[in-house]
Amino acid sequence: MSSWLPLSPGERSVAIEILVHGPLSRTELARRLDLSQGSLTRLTKPLIESGLLVEVPEAGAPAEVRQGRPSQPLDIVAESRAFLGFKITDDMVYGVVTTLRSDVVARLDRPLTGHDPAAVADLLAQMTAELAARHPALAGIGIGVGGLVRERAVVGESPFLQWRDVPLADLVRERTGLPVVVENDVAALVEAETWFGAGRGLDRFVVLTIGAGIGYGLVLGGRRVPYAEEDRGFGRHLIINPHGPLTPNGERGSAVSLLAIPSIRYQIRAATGRDATYEEILAGAAAGEPMASRVIGEAARALGTLVAQIANFAMPQKILLAGEGVGLMDVAGDAVRETIADHRHPLADPVGLETKVSDFHDWARGAAVLAIQVLVLGADRA
């Protein structure tokens, strides 16, 4: 990795454009970045010499024509470096190894038996060593945590881990010798979807996650909008129905009380005295069980209201629903869409709604994308 750094601002722009949209011809690159051919040649030459970029055959051109063509497209050497991404939950650590283009090439998960910061860092170091044995070109580590993260290094507050002011980046760096980036897990997922997923090429884009909590990320002008309260209460104080349920982790009738998986399970347990998994509750609603149907119906209407409010105020081109709770759409998607329509102007454009059934490896991949952005490209996404 050291041979690539430091990238100048111009080199960084070229590398990012090819990474996200490539392979691209020099003519197209110059047009996209508003550069002369001479300036582009000056910027791409060191990137090719360092091994970050490579000339590739033009798709569809005969082999005898492709060889030695001066206008060959440029592409990122995606396999030249590997990146580790970790997602930490309250009881598991999920790890992935990705290429420069965030393609996942390996997975490794381990149970988290305690929340002591040093012990968690030890576990991450052990997982890193195990993965490094199979992928020796590791260039850096990204870590996603549910909570408030400062300066991409310190976990200021994490209710799931019961952490305050934990210097996680330093703890892991000391044990692995690799550069480390720590970020809020929703922010990392938004970055990954913006560069390589559902938001690629969009100017206005929203990610809404449903799971242990409710997460929200907004992209404007193709860049994620950071905010100081990230993961410190979105949905917890956003009241959907003031007469709705009161749960331990949210105001009465809030988005969290109506939609988050722990809240849905709490409602069923309080009403029936029976502990049920989220999947069992969804299955019960699909089968017409009265209590499950009522709780899931309320959740569907809450989601529809929330999506409509986001669409009305942020006006995104697309809203991505992600997280382990999006199975709600399979059971009650019609109710969600009907509620969206009820809360939108009759002549408003339809909401571009996409659902992605994601597991924790997607969150880990998002953390790896942050590592790519910050450690390799020096992309200022804050």
UniProtKB/TrEMBL annotation:
SUPFAM superfamilies: Actin-like ATPase domain, Winged helix' DNA-binding domain
Domain of life per record: Bacteria
Signal peptide: none
UniProt xrefs under InterPro entries: ATPase_NBD, ROK, WH-like_DNA-bd_sf, WH_DNA-bd_sf
Similarity-based family: Belongs to the ROK (NagC/XylR) family.
Protein name (record): MarR family transcriptional regulator
Organism: Streptomyces diastatochromogenes
Lineage, uppermost ranks: Bacteria, Bacillati, Actinomycetota, Actinomycetes, Kitasatosporales
